[in-house]
């Protein structure tokens, strides 16, 4: 097993694994189907908000329910998690099968919840929850105009 795979974490062990991380802990969530520059910049900025970064990743079934397209995700959960775990900015990677990461936030109780600037913190369940228990919710501005959907469209153009 590659060393970075030690960052992969089950839901059952999440609270204990978080207890062992340097504080403050930042948590974010998402699909991360084809990783791009926007993602890695955003994750590095999220990590800089604290001392550790936990990434909760949508299962393949929960991605399907998000309506990004019948062919999504292109990369399986196991592959998306492994790629994220290999990043220097990332401390732990966990999956979630619910429609939102609210339950993960309730189990993990991060000091800081971060999401890309396409979300309004006070409008999403994860942001509301962190604010309610006295944590911080931070929307990080987009540094690069990139998206997995755009990349897929570009690839299809030449297919
Ligand atoms: N270009 C970007 N800059 C900064 N943050 C981003 C960027 N793209 C996505 N993010 C953030 O990364 C997280 C995961 O995003 P997501 O997987 O939805 O990326 P995406 O490329 O927009 O995907 P898709 O095109 O499939 O919707 C979200 O919190 C999102 O806000
Ligand atoms: O990668 P995405 O599409 O930005 O990730 C989604 O974020 C949603 C957000 O946290 C608002 O609740 C979440 O609900 C969804 O399950 C995806 O993780």
From TrEMBL:
**Keywords attached to this entry:** ATP-binding, Carbohydrate metabolism, Nucleotide-binding, Nucleotidyltransferase, Transferase
Q: Name one GO biological process term.
A: carbohydrate metabolic process
Name the Enzyme Commission number(s) assigned to this protein: 2.7.7.70
Per the record, what are the reactions this protein catalyses? Answer: D-glycero-beta-D-manno-heptose 1-phosphate + ATP + H(+) = ADP-D-glycero-beta-D-manno-heptose + diphosphate
User: GO MF terms on file?
Assistant: ATP binding; nucleotidyltransferase activity; phosphotransferase activity, alcohol group as acceptor
Q: Which residues form a coiled coil?
A: none
What class does this enzyme belong to in the EC scheme?
transferase
Outline the extent of the Cytidyltransferase-like domain: 27-131
Superkingdom to which the source organism belongs: Bacteria
Matching PANTHER family: BIFUNCTIONAL PROTEIN HLDE, FAD SYNTHASE
What is the name listed in the Swiss-Prot or TrEMBL entry for this protein?
D-glycero-beta-D-manno-heptose 1-phosphate adenylyltransferase
Organism field: Massilia cellulosiltytica
């Amino acid at each position: 097993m590659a060393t970075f795979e030690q960052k992969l974490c089950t839901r059952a062990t999440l609270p204990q694994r978080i207890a062992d991380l340097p504080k403050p802990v930042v948590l974010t969530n998402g699909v991360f189907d084809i990783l791009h520059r926007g993602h890695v910049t955003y994750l590095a900025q999220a990590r800089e908000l604290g001392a550790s970064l936990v990434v909760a990743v949508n299962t393949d079934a929960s991605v399907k329910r998000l309506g990004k397209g019948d062919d999504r995700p292109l990369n399986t959960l196991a592959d998306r998690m492994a790629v994220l775990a290999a990043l220097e900015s990332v401390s732990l990677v966990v999956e979630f099968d619910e429609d939102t990461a609210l339950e993960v936030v309730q189990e993990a109780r991060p000091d800081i919840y971060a999401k890309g600037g396409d979300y309004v913190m006070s409008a999403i369940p994860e942001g509301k929850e962190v604010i309610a228990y006295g944590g911080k919710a931070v929307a990080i501005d987009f540094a690069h105009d990139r998206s997995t959907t755009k990349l897929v469209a570009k690839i299809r153009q030449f297919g």
